[in-house]
Amino acid sequence: MALMDNIKSLFGKKKIKVGYNVKNASVYLEWNSKAELFKIYQKIKNNWYEFCITYDNAVRIDFCPVGVTVFKVCAFNGGELICESDEISVKVNTLEINYAQDDEKVHLFWNKTGGTDGYKIYKKSGDALYTGYKETKKNEIYLYGLPEESEFKIKPFKNVEGEKVFKRAVSKMSVVKDVLFTCPDTFFGLLAIPEKSNISLMWKPVKGADSYKVYQKSGDKFDETDCVKSNQVIIKHLPLGDVYLGVRAFKGDECIAHSYILRTEIQTMEVFPVNLDKKVYLYWNKVSNIDGYRIYKKNEKNEFVGFKNVTEEEVFLDNIKSGEKCEFKVKPFKMVDGVRDFTKVNAKCKVDVYMSSEINAVINEAFGNKIAVSWIFDGNVDGYEIFSGEKSILNIEDGFAHIALLDYSEESFVIKGYKKVRDKVLYTCESKPVSVLSKNNRLNMKPCKKYKVSVIIPSYNSEDYISRSISTVLGSDLEELELIVVDDGSSDNTKGIIEWYCEKYPCYVKKIFKENGGVADARNHGIAAAQGEYSTFMDNDDMIRPDGYSALYNAIKKTKSDIAIAPLFRIDSDQYTPRHVLKFKENIAHDIDDYLKLIYSDGYNNIGVWNKLYKTSLVQKHPFGLLAYEDVSWTPYILSWADKFCYIHKMCYEWDRKIRPETFSNVLSNRSAKEKFEERYQAFRFFLDNGNPKRKDCLYYIMAKRLFNQGGAAKYEGYFDAIRNMAPHLKDNKYLKEDTEYSKLLAPYLT
């Protein structure tokens, strides 16, 4: 953990609102700010230490000391601090104990208790009484020669006038010896959050580890249940009662560390329904030491009536009417003298039975003797499988997927969506058969006489991924669109791929080849050539969902707006993170000021050019400025010249950061603080100098916010000098006056 000598020099002034909850010795912190990552700091003796890092908006901190602990949450984008929380003082009253072991000893450890001189360890004897066993001054102890199972109690004490005065805090722990984790001496702690029949299991990353194997005790042994790359996993549908879990860290095939064995308890029986088109599949977590389960269904009189017994933790129920709203109950029982003796636990669930939704699929030819299969499905599935006849061609373990590239074939294909339930794959939906001979293949459509949307893709040395991006556009359900691909002087085969699509789809794909001038210049060439009523942008490594452009187009036409905006997915590895999610109402036009003043509120979340649809006449009149950080400069600029916008809640665009991790932003990030400031300030000045004079107050306001946030993160005084130079435009700025937070933050620079 990194010690910070001067906390004021690190933390900015914008505040993150953090809520917290305490359970036993664990502290849950939760906040609603958006950022690429968050760092949690802990205050120890007036010094701050980096405690952990998370990419989520919540964290659980295990084994907090008894007493008051102070935390702080800081948000970072691109390695730069953008905002922070106030100090969070959390009080823990519970002493919590856990253990690690090898084949010789057991390591007991627990959270510290302030003002303590030592801890007394009690061991449970055969007559169920706890007797004094050991003492220690530390919050840990090693015990040797223990039987297979032992139970301990820990009591902290303070020495007062030669007598031990015990504190109220006390903890108990059963230790079950198992030699599975006899491996390196490096131990790490586990954090378990039970949620009904599931457990969220987390741990600190182990240096050098590239994978982690998760184990669960079954009978007398531990079975491997999962292997993950990250330091967390959700274990679902655990049986009632005590659950023992462990984790091993691996570098390649070598185990380099292991966890202690964690014991937790599942107290909830939970039943889950899966709709299978007039059929329902029910499954639930296991209850031990029972003979079976009775299934009940609620009737018209609102009474549960038993109708079926099963011995396994699942059942298929047939012949249920489509549209019926069903409620089921499952009750475990033991047979006693030929009579069902029901346990106290049971579980209920409700399910709406419906005809399975159909997947709308289309096939288009793609570069490299491939076909691109695209589909639209808004339901909830775990993945898709593509079939040719009865033969499975491709399995896609991604419920958000909407495109696949296959070897060329004129055969018909069917796409089936499925849910993975335990060891079963249950198909819940499917498409009609489609082939390259289908009418909705763009090659078989009538040529467009008038385009509704122009899609502009700037490309540069993108031979490895541009075919996929083009195919997602051609797979759009909006027929009347044109795709303008502007190659910015590529030196690889990108031009050849673009040529192929232009020859194959001459009515839809157009090319512009130019000398290298940067992405802004490439977009401007595309803007000048656009013939659609509306225009939009896509990067050459990103994707659009098949119904994305039609959703944006229908919204902008219905509301008669200048710009339509939608949230998007950021894709990192296989993780889809929603971005740009705002609370504007759908199907109405909003004043552009309501959106413009949000720019930079949460870092860079609101300035992307790709998740928007613009009037073509608007962007042709106001092209990009030819400078670095082109999105930062152009988005506020073009927005200032619009009057109305509309917002839809549908995820349309996919910003893929896994296929091409090295971007122009990465290059910019390596420059000096002075160089970064000068380029960013130039970008800000572009929209300020060229934006709509009617909205200058709003532009000054958002510029001041961004300068302040970046200045605190970069520790470069040039940002604050720029704010001081803007003082005449900010003192009576109505937008700043309405923002009480930034009015206070900026006040010292406006005097």
Q: Would you count the extended β strands for me?
A: 54
| CATH class division of the largest domain | Alpha Beta
Counted up, domains total: 7
Mean pLDDT: 87
CATH homology group of the largest domain: Spore Coat Polysaccharide Biosynthesis Protein SpsA, Chain A
* Overall geometric form: globular
For the record, the CATH architecture of the largest domain stands as Alpha-Beta Complex
- Radius of gyration, taken over Cα atoms and rounded to an integer in Å: 31 Å
* CATH third-level topology of the largest domain: Spore Coat Polysaccharide Biosynthesis Protein SpsA, Chain A
CA distance, first residue to last residue: 40 Å
Structural class: alpha+beta
Beta-strand content: 35-45%
- Uncertain ranges: 1-12
Number of DSSP helices?
A: 15
Largest sheet: 8 strands, mixed
Helix content: 10-25%
Strand order of the largest sheet: 45-44-43-46-52-48-53-51
